[in-house]
Amino acid sequence: MKVVFLSNYYNHHQSELSNAFYQKTDGEYYFIETSVMSEERKKLGYSLGSVPSFVIKYEEDKIRAISLINSADVVIYGSCPESLIKERLKNKKLTFKYSERIYRTKQNLLKFPVRFIRFFKKYGFCKNHYLLCSSAYTSYDYLKTLNFINKAFKWGYFPAFKSYDKPLSLIAKKQENSILWVGRFMKLKRFNHTLEVLKRLKTDGYKVVLNVIGTGELEDDYKDLVKKENLTDTINFLGAMKPEMVREYMEKSQIFLFTSNRQEGWGAVVNEAMNSCCAVVASKEAGSVPYLLNDGENGFIYSNGNVDELFIKTKTLLDDKILREKLSYSAYKTLENEWNAENAVDKFLTLSSELLSGSKKPFIYKTGVLSKAEIIKG
Prior knowledge:
Number of strands: 13
Radius of gyration: 21 Å
Helix content: 40-55%
CATH architecture of the largest domain: 3-Layer(aba) Sandwich
Strand order of the largest sheet: 3-2-1-4-5-6-7
Oligomer: single chain
Number of helices: 15
Structural class: alpha/beta
């Protein structure tokens, strides 16, 4: 089976999945880059330096790229010019659109008729065209356009999974009362909510250490706020660092806070924190959270920017060692057993084989990756 993946650029969020595709298709896999990575992303560690031979830059080899797109058994496309898959859709070849949510802010209902027409012209008459939801809210957003109804599957991002021989030993060695936050300093990440939690914990007499990894436009504002609230003794601003170094901090941290709002498409740091045996407290509004976490089973979920709930659940993890370690271990097992690149590719190739064979009722997975994407409002 020849598989082609189109996206903006090759990075560490796509490399693990791509390597699995390449191995499991006996080299019949190609990743086509359709744009150039921004300098900001490079500074955040997205650039991998050297790239595998299966990566093709569209601007440098357009003829080969188009030939691969039109001849592949299966195409997955994300951020790319719609013109690149137009011929393929016209010929009803098996194609998967992978997408985060398309409406990240509240919408004017009067504009939906126009959007419906625009989206239906793109996708409404396309057979063998399915949706991979890289957000728990993608299927709901597309439902508003009446597209991909009963043709949407759970998907996501699959950072490198790191296997530990003794995850319980890793959990036991974590730094006491250690909390980690990772992200860019921008409004959608809501780092100020984390600061409010630290302020309340300090008021209640907790001695915790918050390590913060990232940079961004609001960095100076947040540092000023830390000084104003007398939190400099509990918070370490570590700046930007490479992904492998971020993972080292995750391995040392007991608790990981993820505070993004609905504008967060996925949030691959949640995958990585769970893989690193962190007890995660995450905002339900972020795209990855309803897929990866079950509240109270493998982490905690809080809703709608509710800082009180975020504080209570963080405090609970600090107070209850048994619960914290249980959630940490369950988080790791969720990534080991289900939400990893190897499993995603196995499931994808099985489903694609059935669809290519003309099966009218292909096997649909009941849970996890490639199960039916429920309609989740948000």
